[in-house]
Amino acid sequence: MRRAVIAAILMAITAGPALAVPITITQTQPFSGIPNYQSDLTFNQFDDQGGTLSLLSVEVIVTLNVDGGQLVLDNDGIDPATGTFEFGAKGNISSVDVALLNALSQPVTSEVSAIHSGGFNLAGNVGDVPNDFDPSPPDGMQYDGGPETDGDSGFIGSAYYAGYIGMGTFDVKASIAQWADFGGVSGIEWAVTPVTSSGTVQVIYTVPEPAAMMLLVSGGAVALLRRKRRA
């Protein structure tokens, strides 16, 4: 009788269209610090139960947030200086354990840039000496950093799934660097107080729900049959 019930359940799972929706398994690892720095983030491989479960996709998501810090520009040239500046941090990910490549064998995520862009219009030097980094106008300015964020995502190419399947772990390195730029305008000296940064790397596995459910139910079926035999 129990064999018939279990068989009926398995047939319902494989035939039921309502269960044909994939499920996701998400891992999120955070990082934080004052650039420049690197963080090694550890993720679990996908356990395919010896090939019983299939891996439909592997998505990687990177998010970078920055706040604070200062950028000082001081024009020591005789002539006025006008231009744009950028201030914040940039980041990228890498790994020696798995391939972080998409179906075109390109990096799965591009460099993320949590950066503020602004403009400056500085008068010619009004008397301060080189290397004093004076932010006072009219020949100087100070930008106080605020919150900025950036992110990117992509899917690993199926040709590279092998490194993601197993019962072990793999590491992904997040590398975060301070960024400041004023376009190389002649005569300007500059100083930086670095930002603080934080962010996450996510690895998301997608698997077909019917296969996962079949595994669970068939495992329960084996347990039921074993109990019956012992009885």
Itemize the secondary structure elements and their pairings.
Layout: H1 2-15, E1 23-33, E2 37-44, E3 57-67, E4 70-75, E5 81-94, E6 112-122, E7 140-144, E8 148-155, E9 169-181, E10 188-193, E11 196-207, H2 209-230
Antiparallel strand pairs: 1-11, 2-9, 3-8, 3-11, 4-7, 4-10, 5-6, 5-9
Helix pairs in contact: 1-2
Task: Name some characteristics of this structure.
disordered N terminus, alpha+beta, 231 residues, elongated
Largest sheet: 4 strands, antiparallel
Note the beta-strand portion: over 45%
- Unreliably modeled segments: 1-19, 211-231
What is the CA-based Rg, rounded? 27 Å
Number of domains: 2
How would you describe this structure to a colleague?
With 231 residues, the protein is of the alpha+beta class. The chain has two domains: 1-22 and 208-231; 23-207. Helices cover 16% and strands 45% of the residues. It has two helices and eleven strands. The protein has helices spanning 2-15, 209-230, and strands at 23-33, 37-44, 57-67, 70-75, 81-94, 112-122, 140-144, 148-155, 169-181, 188-193, 196-207. Strands 1-11-3-8 form a four-stranded antiparallel β-sheet. Strands 2-9-5-6 form a four-stranded antiparallel β-sheet, with no helix packed on it. It has a three-stranded antiparallel β-sheet with strand order 7-4-10, with no helix packed on it. Helix 1 runs antiparallel to helix 2. It starts with a helix and ends with a helix. The model is unreliable at 1-19 and 211-231 (pLDDT under 50).
